Amino acid sequence: MKKVEHIGIAVNSIETAGDIYTKLLNTGIYKVEEVASEHVKTAFLQTGPNKIELLEATHPDSAIAKFIAKKGEGIHHIAFEVEDIYAEMQRLRAEGFVLLNEEPKRGADNKLVCFVHPKGTNGVLVELCQSV
Q: What is stated as this protein's family in its record (predicted)?
């Protein structure tokens, strides 16, 4: 794993949360996009090398909507950048981690992504992401 790529925060409204994080981080949102396959709208902010991804559900059955209904708004996942997502997935499976995806899929910010089940990571949802 190369670095922390971003921290994902589940929010009810990107507009409302975007205003808060813009003020907090003293920087604006640089990218908003919808990931239709995940029923989510995302917005990214960056300060220095650090990125925050705001995640807003676009459908009541989405993972983000379910997360917020159960836990409320807050940190949803931490993402790590990897050089080779296929090799990293194979390594983590061999180490006994349970992956939520059999194969990487397209995620936000034009990345290949895969999630590691939080039961094996002390309750933290971990995302692997690779630039393509």
A: Belongs to the methylmalonyl-CoA epimerase family.
Spell out the domain ranges in the chain: 3-131
Q: Mean pLDDT across the chain, nearest whole number?
A: 96
Q: What is the pLDDT of residue 109?
A: 86
| Alpha-carbon distances, residue 111 vs 35, 74, 81, 108, 130 (angstroms) | 11, 23, 10, 6, 5
pLDDT, residue 101, reads 93
Full-model pTM:
0.93
Q: Does domain 3-131 have CATH number 3.10.180.10?
A: yes
Q: Find the helix or strand (DSSP H, E) in which 33 lies.
A: strand 29-35
